[in-house]
């Protein structure tokens, strides 16, 4: 009913504003549920594991005695596996995303690829583990190594990187592209000088989302044979002599943070539960640190990019 | 200066009013290929569309356009929205090649070498290196002012810092922007105002010495003061470069152009010297449009 007089209009406005308020409250509560759940978990881990968070915890190998056990092999393993994951997934994902957006002409083939890529993001991670066990561990002979694990997780986050790359590329206005083409740039020059740099903030976001997922993955890493009890470190990636890099660590056996946690939670002693909580706390911090780095990089890259 | 355009005085045997025909321009341009001038009282032709048709998929957007573009003069394309003026402009540097399903017929020749820009054998990149384009919305790259202007040179392989510096300065001066940005070449281009951004885009084109400059409604996103500065710039640029400009603003066409082409529904209705066309159009459709009775 359309109000006829001023008081009618005011009544309608009051009613509309009430609905506005109802939604605002609902939205706020929804937000709180997410944030508070995370905070509660995080704080509970922090309190439970607080006593164990000593420097020794970070520099000790796991042990049968809970009080002496540490996460050295786990966090080093996680960092190295993530390194391989990033190095393998980022170039492949970005290249595939750029190709799909900038090079491929639309046809049923690209549509099919597109559907597949999107679906890949939803494949359970254990399936990647089985695939990797067959392909990386046995067929390629990489063994139960950091390389196998990194590549597996790289494969796992590849769809995320591809999708993020495509989204970022699509957000570049067409007239910027045309401006570059109009100057006589080739497709590769446009890609290298414009498309990739301008979509970098978006790509990084995708990479970090993927990496945050990968760092917490347990199933595929166990499937390819990560060890649960490891009392040695892989060889250092930095060698003593020229060229100062060393790739022996890629072949090393390893464990990662979530596996170490899993191992400790499955033990009956209370003290190991404490260790697990402390390790969980560290794992969350690692994820938050990755996010912080990506936010920082994104901020600096995005400063000069406006449309 | 030019007195009038020959083709406007052509009397068709069938008694229709003069319209540019294939014969008029093709004849003119082939004559040009020999002696550099089409007719005694017109300037040399720099480019010419000959029976040029364009298709977006099944839809024919341009119907057998024949149109000369005179060297170091400004030619304006006017007409109501959807008449195909931008489509024609964008064909001149093969922008349509970026999208699938587009098809050209006929020719757009660039002189003096008489290259058909639409020939599939002619690389669109070669065409774009010879013909610059300024877009409707200022589209500087999200890079520094310097890098924006230097980009065209960089993709042509220029690496020498001193050459780049000189050319960037020259181009910015040519676009009447140097005084405003000389002290902040390394600042992001987005720090500039809209009008400055558009002049930056013009400088970006000028840096590579294009033979023809295409302007696609270059002031439609700008305020009147910025518009005036762009028009003034176009007025200066005509000394150095051939200009083809699409505008929906008839006053702008009247102010900046030497020749005007009126298009409607993908057809070229009338082409002539701007002064004459606005005062005394031959075709009644043109008169209706120019006087604002329609469009």
UniProtKB/TrEMBL annotation, chain A:
<keyword id="KW-1003">Cell membrane</keyword>
<keyword id="KW-0813">Transport</keyword>
<keyword id="KW-0472">Membrane</keyword>
<feature type="transmembrane region" description="Helical">
    <location>
        <begin position="146"/>
        <end position="165"/>
    </location>
</feature>
<protein>
    <recommendedName>
        <fullName>Phosphate transport system permease protein PstA</fullName>
    </recommendedName>
</protein>
<feature type="transmembrane region" description="Helical">
    <location>
        <begin position="276"/>
        <end position="297"/>
    </location>
</feature>
<feature type="transmembrane region" description="Helical">
    <location>
        <begin position="21"/>
        <end position="50"/>
    </location>
</feature>
<feature type="domain" description="ABC transmembrane type-1">
    <location>
        <begin position="75"/>
        <end position="294"/>
    </location>
</feature>
<dbReference type="InterPro" id="IPR000515">
    <property type="entry name" value="MetI-like"/>
</dbReference>
<dbReference type="Pfam" id="PF00528">
    <property type="entry name" value="BPD_transp_1"/>
</dbReference>
<comment type="similarity">
    <text>Belongs to the binding-protein-dependent transport system permease family. CysTW subfamily.</text>
</comment>
<feature type="transmembrane region" description="Helical">
    <location>
        <begin position="214"/>
        <end position="233"/>
    </location>
</feature>
<keyword id="KW-1133">Transmembrane helix</keyword>
<dbReference type="InterPro" id="IPR035906">
    <property type="entry name" value="MetI-like_sf"/>
</dbReference>
<keyword id="KW-0812">Transmembrane</keyword>
<feature type="transmembrane region" description="Helical">
    <location>
        <begin position="120"/>
        <end position="140"/>
    </location>
</feature>
<feature type="transmembrane region" description="Helical">
    <location>
        <begin position="70"/>
        <end position="100"/>
    </location>
</feature>
<dbReference type="InterPro" id="IPR005672">
    <property type="entry name" value="Phosphate_PstA"/>
</dbReference>
């Amino acid at each position: 009913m359309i109000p006829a007089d001023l008081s009618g209009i005011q009544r309608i406005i009051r009613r509309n504003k009430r609905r506005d308020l109802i939604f605002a409250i609902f939205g706020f509560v929804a937000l709180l549920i997410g944030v508070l759940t995370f905070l509660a978990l995080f704080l509970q881990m922090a309190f439970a594991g607080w006593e164990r968070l000593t420097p020794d915890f970070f520099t000790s190998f796991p042990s049968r005695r809970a009080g002496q056990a540490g996460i050295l092999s786990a966090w080093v393993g996680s960092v190295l596996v993530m390194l391989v994951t990033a190095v393998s997934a980022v170039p492949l994902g970005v290249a595939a995303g750029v190709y799909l957006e900038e090079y491929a002409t639309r046809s049923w083939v690209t549509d099919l690829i597109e559907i597949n890529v999107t679906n890949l993001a939803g494949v359970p991670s254990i399936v990647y583990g089985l695939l990797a066990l067959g392909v990386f561990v046995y067929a390629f002979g990489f063994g139960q190594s950091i390389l196998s694990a990194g590549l597996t997780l790289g494969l796992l986050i590849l769809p995320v990187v591809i999708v993020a790359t495509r989204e970022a590329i699509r957000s570049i206005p067409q007239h910027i592209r045309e401006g570059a083409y109009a100057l006589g740039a080739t497709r590769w020059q446009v890609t290298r000088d414009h498309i990739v740099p301008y979509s970098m903030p978006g790509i990084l976001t995708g990479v970090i989302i993927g990496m945050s997922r990968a760092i917490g993955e347990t199933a595929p890493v166990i499937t390819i044979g990560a060890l649960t009890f490891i009392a040695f470190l892989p060889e250092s990636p930095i060698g003593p002599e020229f060229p100062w890099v060393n790739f022996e660590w890629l072949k090393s056996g390893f464990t990662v943070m979530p596996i170490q946690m899993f191992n400790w939670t499955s033990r009956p002693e209370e003290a190991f539960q404490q260790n697990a909580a402390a390790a969980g706390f560290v794992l969350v911090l690692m994820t938050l640190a990755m996010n912080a780095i990506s936010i920082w990089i994104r901020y600096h890259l995005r400063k000069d990019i406006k449309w | 200066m030019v007195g009038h355009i020959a083709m406007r005085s052509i009397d068709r045997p069938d008694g229709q009013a003069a319209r540019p025909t294939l014969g008029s321009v093709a004849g003119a341009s082939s004559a040009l290929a020999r002696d550099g001038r089409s007719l005694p009282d017109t300037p040399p032709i720099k480019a010419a569309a000959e029976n040029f048709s364009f298709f977006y998929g099944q839809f024919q957007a341009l119907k057998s356009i024949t149109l000369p573009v005179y060297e170091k003069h400004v030619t304006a394309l006017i007409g109501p929205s959807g008449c195909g003026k931008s489509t024609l402009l964008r064909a001149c540097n093969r922008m349509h090649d970026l999208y699938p399903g587009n098809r050209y017929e006929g020719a757009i020749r660039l002189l003096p070498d008489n290259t058909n820009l639409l020939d599939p054998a002619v690389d669109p990149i070669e065409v774009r290196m010879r013909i610059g384009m300024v877009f409707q919305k200022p589209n500087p790259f999200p890079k520094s002012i310097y890098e924006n202007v230097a980009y065209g040179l960089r993709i042509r392989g220029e690496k020498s810092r001193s050459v780049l510096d000189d050319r960037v300065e020259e181009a910015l001066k040519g676009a009447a922007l140097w005084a405003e940005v000389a002290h902040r070449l390394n600042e992001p281009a987005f720090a500039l105002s809209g009008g400055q951004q558009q002049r930056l885009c013009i400088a970006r084109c000028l840096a590579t010495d294009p033979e023809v400059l295409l302007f696609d409604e270059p002031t439609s996103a700008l305020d009147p003061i910025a518009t005036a500065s762009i028009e003034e710039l176009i007025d200066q640029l005509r000394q150095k470069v051939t200009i083809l400009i699409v505008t929906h603003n008839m006053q702008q066409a009247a102010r900046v152009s030497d020749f005007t082409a009126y298009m409607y529904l993908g057809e070229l209705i009338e082409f002539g010297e701007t002064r004459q066309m606005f005062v005394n159009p031959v075709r009644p459709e043109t008169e209706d449009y120019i006087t604002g009775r329609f469009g």
